[in-house]
Design brief:
about 25% strand; Tetrahydropterin Synthase, Chain A; 5-stranded mixed sheet; 4 helices; alpha+beta; PTPS_His_AS
């Protein structure tokens, strides 16, 4: 009789948060910002009901389905991590004024995804986070998998 193989699974959970922001780069003039970001450069900002989803991938042993619990990860624990990494810093905030990370980083959905990735990376077991998916609207979605480009 051969030993039973370990089963791997991916786990996903989503949250919805509301936040406002203004797309504006300090490196550009007011005219350049208006041309690049259009109505999203409104000095008073604008808001979104973002939907954030994170997906865990079976890259390490901890994402094998535990034979005793039958789980990849306790969902209550995952919910707590998402509360700390996403909801507390972002929900009902002005990203540009209330979140220090965005003081020098343009608060695009791409950078929101990076922010969420970095926060979750600190809380989850090493190597388990596969991707962060942020819906700015039902039509605009950003997926970030932790990739970095070489800058010359």
């Amino acid at each position: 009789m051969s030993p039973r193989s370990a089963r791997l699974a991916r786990l996903s959970r989503s949250v919805t948060f509301s936040a406002s922001h203004r797309l504006h780069s300090k490196s550009l003039s007011d005219e350049e910002n208006l041309k690049l970001f259009g109505k999203c450069n409104n000095p008073n900002g604008h808001g979104h009901n973002y939907k954030g989803e994170e997906l865990l991938m079976p890259l390490v042993l901890s994402l094998q389905i535990d034979p005793l619990s039958g789980m990849v990860m306790n969902l209550a624990e995952l919910k707590e991590h998402m509360q700390e990494a996403i909801m507390e810093p972002l929900d009902h905030k002005n990203l540009d004024k209330d979140v220090p990370y965005f003081a020098e980083v343009v608060s695009t959905t791409e950078n929101v995804a990076v922010f969420i990735w970095e926060n979750l990376q600190r809380l989850l077991p090493t190597g388990t986070l596969y991707k962060v998916k942020v819906y700015e609207t039902e039509h605009n979605v950003v997926v970030y998998k932790g990739e970095e480009a070489m800058v010359e």
